[in-house]
Amino acid sequence: MPIPPIIVMAARAGWSGQWNLLMGGLGPCDTEGNYKRPVSDHLEAVLPEQPPLHERPAERLPRLIVGRSCPWAHRTWLVHRLRGLENSLSLLTATADHRAGRWQLEPGWLGCSSLLELYRACGTPPSYRATVPVLVDPEGPRILGNESAQLVELLNRWPAQDQAPDLAPPALKESIQSWQILLQPALNDGVYRCGFARNQAAYERAERALTNALERVENHLSQQGPWLCGDTLSLADVRLFPTLIRWEAVYSPLFGCTRPLWVFPNIWDWRRRFFAIPGVADSCDADAWRRDYYGALFPLNPGGIVPTGAELSTLVNSSMPHE
């Protein structure tokens, strides 16, 4: 027996109200329904001073704490891998606890089992969100930085082996900053503007800006590749990769970023080239991304179903459909 239309309409109205309430906590918006990322307090990123890193035993080295699903943390993880910082900076992976809405430390560290406890142990004010990435010096303990754009620059100056690449050479700093100005709002945040848009018009504005940014990247790579700043891999590439490597796993199906990347052949090749760099694939876990995005973002996935997906290496290394 079909459900009477009046009941369907009432259910839709009720769900719409609840959805807007939930979305208000998940993704704040302006009066036109455009997602606005909340401004978070952060600490200025600084290099540790005493005792010097080369004099410390391994267990007293600073730790970079990341989460597998967080694209902002992924940036810092990539710099850690690309510059081979394993001997001067330990890596700790936090686990997302969807029920508690916080990051857990497994195993614990400095007597703390959650990132919130660690932030408080470092004397961080309550206004600071306990999130990843965060760089912590056990001497104190104290937080050395917790904002990804600053941390990737700090880690590019972190003590490393002589052969470690410089991802922000002086000659490229202006170009890297120009890409940051474009990529951060239109692409890195742009996928969230699509997914957290409160109405159709807001979504269409976000989707247009996202597509325009992809087209600019595509056109640039076709003329001045193979990397965003020409022949040299740089922080500009590092800041873009975490967004585009998550495209098919979460941003396209869950956030409505439905323009397929294979329509941008130069971007497709750029992503494949980056993924092939030693150490990069180890930082990519599509199963964890799907589990955390689909599991945590209830308003976008109220059924809680986590879809399956293609093996990431197979997807990235596959030929484009028109080839």
Helix/strand/pairing class, anyone? alpha+beta
Helicity, as a percent range: 40-55%
Which segments are poorly predicted (pLDDT under 50) over 5 or more consecutive residues?
none
CATH class of the largest domain: Mainly Alpha
Compute the number of strand runs: 6
Order of helices and strands: HEHEEEHEEHHHHHHHHH
- N→C terminal distance: 49 Å
In percent terms, what proportion of residues is strand? 5-15%
CATH-scheme architecture of the largest domain = Up-down Bundle
Mean pLDDT: 92
| Strand order, sheet with most strands | 4-3-2-1-5-6
For the CA atoms, what is the radius of gyration? 21 Å
Shape: globular
Biggest β-sheet strands, sense, barrel: 6 strands, mixed
Number of domains: 2
In DSSP terms (H or I, runs of 4 or more residues), the helix count works out at 12
Oligomer: single chain
What do we call the CATH topology of the largest domain? Glutathione S-transferase Yfyf (Class Pi), Chain A, domain 2
Please write out the topology.
Elements (H helix, E strand, L loop, with lengths): L4 H22 L36 E5 L3 H12 L7 E8 L4 E8 L2 E3 H7 L12 E4 L4 E4 L2 H9 L16 H16 L1 H6 L4 H25 L10 H11 L1 H9 L9 H11 L10 H11 L15 H6 L6
Parallel strand pairs: 1-2
Antiparallel strand pairs: 1-5, 2-3, 3-4, 5-6
